[in-house]
Design brief:
CATH superfamily of the largest domain: Ribosomal protein L1/L10, rRNA-binding domain
Strand order of the largest sheet: 7-1-8-9
Shape: globular
Oligomer: single chain
Length: 230
C-alpha cells in the first residue's frame, strides 16, 4: 500500500470531507497548504448543470481577471503591414504571416495565445489541426480574431482567461498564484464566477452552478459555499 507523504498528509489535516467553506476561509486554507517549492497556481473548477454536446448549452468565453493570473503569457499574432507593427509595439512575442504559419506547421509552437486579423484567417485556417487541439485557434467570439490587435495583445498579457466547458459540463481555470493576497484571489475568483454566470446558455435547465471548488497545484481541493460567491 502506498504511503501518504508528510506534506500531503499535512495538506489534508483539518479538512472536513464534503464540507463547503466560505470563499475567504477556503482561500486562507489553500494558501496555508501551498507548501511546494514553487509558486503554486490557484485553480477553480465549476461543475455546471449543462450538456455541452448540445449547441445551445455550450459555455465559452473570456474574462479579464482584476489582478491577472501571475503567469507570463507568450502571444503570437498573425498580421501583415501596419497591423503587424501594431502588434509588435503592443508587446506581442511572435508576429508573422505565411512565415509564421510555416513555423507552426512544422511543429514549433512557443506561444500560449494566438491572435489574428480577419484577413489572415485564410492562412490560419489551414492550421486548425495543429492549433485546435491545443486550444490556440483564433476565434472571433473570444476576441482573438480582430483588427484591434493591440488591445487583444494587451488583454492577453494582462491576464485574460479563456474558458470552455468540457464534455462533463466542467469549467476550470487558473485564477492567480498562491503568493497573491487573499483579497486579490477573492476578487479574481468572483470575476471568473461572474463571467460564468453571464455566459449561462439559453438551453440550461435547473441548477446552473452545481458545485465550485478551489485548489492549488499540489494541494487538496476545497469545496466552496456557493452563497459566499455572491
Amino acid at each position: 500500500m502506498a504511503k501518504t507523504g508528510k506534506r500531503l498528509k499535512a495538506a489534508y489535516d483539518n479538512l472536513k470531507p464534503g464540507a463547503a467553506y466560505a470563499l475567504g476561509e477556503a482561500l486562507k486554507m489553500i494558501k496555508e497548504r501551498a507548501t511546494a517549492k514553487f509558486d503554486e497556481t490557484v485553480e477553480i473548477s465549476m461543475n455546471l448543470g449543462i450538456d455541452p454536446r448540445h449547441a445551445d448549452q455550450m459555455v465559452r468565453g473570456v474574462v479579464e481577471l482584476p489582478h491577472g493570473t501571475g503567469k507570463t503569457v507568450r502571444v503570437a499574432v498573425f498580421a501583415k503591414g501596419a497591423k503587424a507593427d501594431e502588434a509588435k509595439a503592443a508587446g506581442a512575442d511572435v508576429v508573422g504571416a505565411e512565415d509564421l504559419a510555416d513555423t507552426v506547421q512544422g511543429g514549433q509552437i512557443d506561444f500560449d495565445r494566438c491572435i489574428a486579423t480577419p484577413d489572415m484567417m485564410g492562412v490560419v485556417g489551414k492550421l486548425g489541426k495543429v492549433l485546435g487541439p491545443r486550444g490556440l485557434m483564433p476565434n472571433p467570439k473570444l476576441g482573438t480574431v480582430t483588427m484591434n490587435v493591440a488591445e487583444a495583445v494587451r488583454a492577453a498579457k494582462a491576464g485574460q482567461v479563456q474558458f470552455r466547458a468540457e464534455k462533463a459540463g466542467i469549467v476550470h481555470a487558473g485564477v492567480g498564484k498562491a503568493s497573491f493576497s487573499e483579497q486579490a484571489l477573492s476578487e479574481n475568483v468572483k470575476a471568473f464566477v461572474d463571467a460564468i454566470n453571464k455566459a449561462k446558455p439559453a438551453g440550461a435547465k435547473g441548477t446552473y452552478v452545481k458545485k465550485v471548488s478551489l485548489s492549488s497545484t499540489m494541494g487538496p481541493g476545497v469545496k466552496l459555499d456557493i452563497a459566499s460567491l455572491a
